[in-house]
Amino acid sequence: MFKLNCVLPYAVAVPAGFVLLWQLIKRWYPWIPEDFAFLSKLIRGLRLLSFYRKNNIAVCDRLAEVAKATPDHPFLVYEDDKFSYMQMHKWVNKCGRTFRSMGVQPKDKVGLMMMNEPAFIAVWLGCNRIGAICSFLNFNLRSKSLMHCIDLSDTKIIIAGSDAAILEALNEVESELKERGIEVYVYGEIYKSNGLFNILFADKEISDDIPRSWREDVTSADVIGYIFTSGTTGFPKAVNMDNRKFFAGAVLLSFANPSPSDVIYTSLPLYHSSGLCIGVTGAIVHGCTCVLRKKFSASKFWPDCCKYNVTIVQYIGEILRYVCKQPETPEDTKHSVRLIIGNGLRPDVWKQFLERYGADIHVLEFYAATEGNVGFVNQHNKFGCVGTFSPLLRKFGSAIIKFDVNTEELVRDKNGRPIRCGPNEPGLLVAKITAHTAISSYKGKKSLTEKKVLKNLFKEGDSYFNTGDLLMYDDQHRLYFCDRVGDTFRWKGENVSTNEVSDTVVHAEGIRECNVYGVQVPGHDGRAGMVTVVLESDELDCEALYKHVEHALPSYARPMFVRVQPELEVTGTFKQRKVNLQKEGFDLEKVSGDKLFYMNIQAKTYSPITPEIQKKIETGEIRL
Q1: Could you tell me which residue ranges the AMP-dependent synthetase/ligase domain spans (predicted)?
Q2: Which residues of the chain fall below pLDDT 70?
Q3: 3-state DSSP call for residue 345?
Q4: Of 151, 155, 214, 309, whose CA is between 20 and 30 Å from 442?
Q5: Residues sharing a CB contact under 8 Å with residue 293, sequence separation 6 or more, in sequence order
Q6: Would you state the pLDDT for residue 231?
Q7: CA–CA dist 218, 133 (Å, integer)
């Protein structure tokens, strides 16, 4: 009894002490419990990546595992078609065997140019099955930009979808393709066009499992695909994607606590990492069902969610803005969506979306880059932010440093070292590169990758990934995305390289010089493309310029506004100045003496901007 009486106070006091300590931590250091919750989930995800890496498990292998464990569970829903995991697994094997019979060997490059459709996944994972590298070609690209991506990825053959726009784009570069000996195969039954296209029938091949020996020398660390990103300068760059990078998307999805009963709605293009890595690969890893839409439709968004019992939606901020502009319908609140995952959601659209469609919907806004080594996620559903940037998480190698947007240079102290930003101070996000936090390299010249690396930043010998993005954290350590820097802006959910657009515009008839940049437009996410031009003659040929950019550039990269100047302003080192042009935009009150034009899509020309036109653009009466 004596011993019990001695132990009893400790038995009560110790747990009580822990409870009190935990309450004090939550009171004075509220981010620590959230950090532990975030890190515990992240560590589980990293362990999964480590397991896949050690066992050389590819995405197609994980599909096979799920197919054999739950063969009849629906994997993919597309319009009125439904494919089980086993059906897709067999389809992948058919594609792999077809490519093998065509002479495709491990590490050969196969170009894939399709809309969002089931065959896209079958072709990609068919390449994955035999160790071939899939080059995901943006179906919006045309002429020079398209051939740049094909050449950069050393494409051996191209598998195309039968969409008319894709076939037209490939027809335009027929001579270049034949010159390089690149064969084009159209998946399914279509008519031949000028002898360029061959017809591919993978559905007539056997579907037995493909032996691992067919890709014996290919490891999980080897490149299995190229996803193109605009980067910060020049034409699109091919990011080297291995299986681990695709599985990392599934780790990001794990913050949504997915289960096989979840249905993920993906209308984002599969040639980008979000749709392919988070939506499709994430569904495969977690055994979920993926609803794939050929192309995003604001009017079909909620009807689709109701029809397919969607529980998780992938988004970019721009598409949710379109959704919020739709007329009210009964489906607005009769859906099963519990969570949305994506990036670029503006606070005003965020607020409107929740108020209209359900305040209990978790917004899993995240920050990441295809080639990067740093990411944040709004696990705790805090309004407007992309995650937290607490003192604990800062220890893991990322920093926000002062950056002069006018000179586009780091602000340094007297010792030449960068200065860390304090709360509520926007700065450049950088992330330390180590053996465990390597960045994905670009295919091609090593210098392309090195441009994204800042060396000897805080001390001699260190290396940091330059994200090219401005972020900021507040007094509660909530992290917010502010803007992009450099020669890239974002419009219609796509990254646009100003150098690429400039290289196109300057070849238009009558254009001597040009300077491309992004400008803010009220009611729109990102920045719209604008170009300041110097003319060969006195007048701008508006119709000719319209036809030129319409033919040569995808819709999201075409300049929405044109400004005519007698000469371009440059720095002492002959770099074009953009900051003042960006600030003045298409505002007639700020632009004095220069003519302004906007892309008049209805008239298929560039039309002069008047005060009335400017007001209509700013109020949304004229759609861009």
Answers
A1: 64-430
A2: 1-30, 188-205, 230-234, 406, 445-448, 486-487, 570-575
A3: coil
A4: 214
A5: 78, 116, 265, 266, 267, 300, 304
A6: 42
A7: 10
Query: Residue 479's closest CA among 389, 417, 563, 565?
Result: 389
- Identify the pLDDT of residue 571: 58
Question: In whole angstroms, how far apart are CA 605 and each of 428, 542, 560, 624?
Answer: 38, 6, 11, 13
**What pLDDT score was predicted for residue 194?**
46
- How many other C-beta atoms lie within 10 A of the C-beta of residue 143? 15
What confidence score (pLDDT) does residue 66 get?
A: 97
Query: Strand 528-535's sheet: what is its strand order?
Result: 511-519, 528-535, 561-564, 595-600, 605-608
Q: Is residue 493 domain-shared with residue 615, that is, in the same domain?
A: yes
Distance from C-alpha of 89 to C-alpha of 92, rounded to nearest angstrom: 5
Give the separation between CA 391 and CA 377, rounded to whole angstroms: 16
Q: Is 352 exposed, middle or buried (0-12, 13-18, 19+ CB in 10 A)?
A: middle
CA distance 617 to 624: 8
Three-state DSSP class for residue 228: strand
306-351 tens-digit pLDDT: 999 999 999 988 889 889 989 988 888 899 999 999 998 888 889 9
Total number of domains constituting the chain: 3
> Helices in 2-30 by DSSP H: which ranges?
2-28
The structure's pTM equals: 0.84
- Answer whether 95's CB lies under 8 Å from 104's CB: no
Quickly tell me which residue has 């070609």 as its tokens: 137
Query: Please, which residues bridge with residue 315 across strands?
Result: 342
Q: Are strands 223-229 and 197-200 parallel, antiparallel or unpaired?
A: unpaired
The burial of 547, by beta-carbon neighbours within 10 Å (0-12 exposed, 13-18 middle, 19 or more buried), is given as middle
Strand partners, 291: 77, 265
Determine, yes or no, domain membership for 298: no
Q: Which two tokens stand for residue 96?
A: 């792999």
* pLDDT (0 to 100) of residue 356: 95
With beta carbons less than 8 A apart as the criterion, state whether 73 and 261 touch. no
Res 192: pLDDT: 42
Is 144 a domain residue?
Answer: no
- The pLDDT assigned to 592 comes to 82
Question: Which of 442, 459, 484 delimits the end of a domain?
Answer: 484
Helices and strands in the chain: count of H runs, count of E runs = 20, 30
d(CA 401, CA 426): 8
Report the candidate in 469, 449, 437 with the shortest Cα–Cα distance to residue 368: 469
d(CA 540, CA 469): 35
Residue 470 forms part of a structural domain: yes
Side chain identity at 616, as an amino acid letter? Answer: K
Residue range(s) defining the domain that contains residue 41: 2-49
Rounded CA-CA distance 5/70 in Å is 56
Nearest alpha-carbon partner for 257 in 379, 406, 115: 379
Phi-psi region of 287 (alpha: psi -120 to 50; beta: other; left: phi over 0): left
Question: 427 with 499, same domain?
Answer: no
Query: 83: which residues sit within 8 A by CB, 6+ positions away?
Result: 74, 75, 76, 77, 91, 118
